[in-house]
Design goal:
Blueprint (H helix, E strand, L loop, with lengths): L1 H59 L4 H16 L3 H23 L2 H5 L1 H36 L3 H7 L13 H4 L7
């Protein structure tokens, strides 16, 4: 009788532990999806700002057509990317195109002094900071999710219910690459 009660108690404990792990996996999957949604919103804001920036530069740098076309093309590819890996590659390409755009802007003092250009550049910097924060949050939730999916014994339940690892989102920040100019 006592052995039967001990066996039943152990089975109940294992079931409760399994339910607890399952619920944590669901919670982390939802947090990863929420975090990705946040990144997606920030990227959309950035994509919406870029055409205004391109148009402003176009007014000053008419013979820099190739650079402007590359930014537009990179933006369109970034908008069309669907997977995390696809977005990551497209956004890296867009970052490079934007660096080239800012390099062109450096050649035009009137453009750099333009209020509209300065405002757009400021907004872009703010959005880049928001993307960075969202990316860190996303990667943190991915790390927690992946750890739980791969760790024993939670990996048994994760495999039973087809929980998978999520990809990290690595994105270079344009501002991190810009070398500050020091003049005396």
């Amino acid at each position: 009788m006592i052995i039967l009660l001990i066996v039943i108690a152990l089975v109940v404990i294992f079931l409760l532990y399994g339910v607890s792990i399952y619920n944590r996996l669901v919670k982390l999957r939802n947090l990863v999806q929420e975090a990705w949604s946040s990144i997606d919103v920030m990227l959309k804001k950035r994509h919406d700002l870029i055409p205004n920036l391109v148009e402003t530069v176009k007014g000053y740098a008419t013979h820099e057509r190739e650079t402007l076309e590359n930014v537009t093309k990179a933006r369109n590819l970034a908008i069309g990317a669907n997977s995390v890996e696809g977005k990551e590659a497209a956004e890296k390409n867009l970052n490079q195109a934007m660096m080239n755009l800012f390099a062109v802007a450096e050649q035009y003092p009137d453009l750099k002094a333009n209020t509209n250009f300065q405002q757009l550049q400021s907004e872009l910097t703010s959005i880049e900071n928001d993307i960075e924060k969202s990316r860190r949050y996303y990667n943190g939730t991915v790390r927690e999710n992946n750890t739980l999916v791969e760790s024993f014994p939670s990996n048994i339940i994760a495999n039973m219910y087809k929980f998978e690892k999520s990809p990290f989102f690595e994105l270079d920040n344009i501002a991190e690459r810009v070398v500050p100019t020091v003049k005396f």
